[in-house]
Design goal:
Blueprint: E1 8-11, E2 20-23, H1 29-45, H2 53-72
Antiparallel strand pairs: 1-2
Helix pairs in contact: 1-2
This protein binds zinc ion.
């Protein structure tokens, strides 16, 4: 079941077209990098894999890279 109250969601269309990732627009930089890494992990591991060990390993790998990128971005105040 899809949780539409989540900060992000990955949709795998029934017609087999490319997955669609939807993120909330009001996420801050730290949140958005974590949520985008999470949703991209769903795309990488595929629709059949849920939040299992394979998912977590790939997520940690991707999230680490996204954190490094986020840390290089200077946010205007
Ligand atoms: Zn998820």
């Amino acid at each position: 079941m899809t949780d539409y109250h989540a900060w992000g969601v990955t949709i795998f269309p029934d017609d087999g077209t490319d997955p669609l990732i939807v993120l909330r627009a009001d996420l801050n930089l730290v949140e958005s990098t974590e949520i985008l890494a999470h949703e991209l992990t769903h795309v990488i591991v595929g629709e059949k894999e849920e939040h299992n060990e394979i998912f977590e390993l790939k997520f940690e790998e991707l999230h680490r890279v996204y954190d490094e990128i986020a840390n290089t971005i200077k946010v205007a105040k």
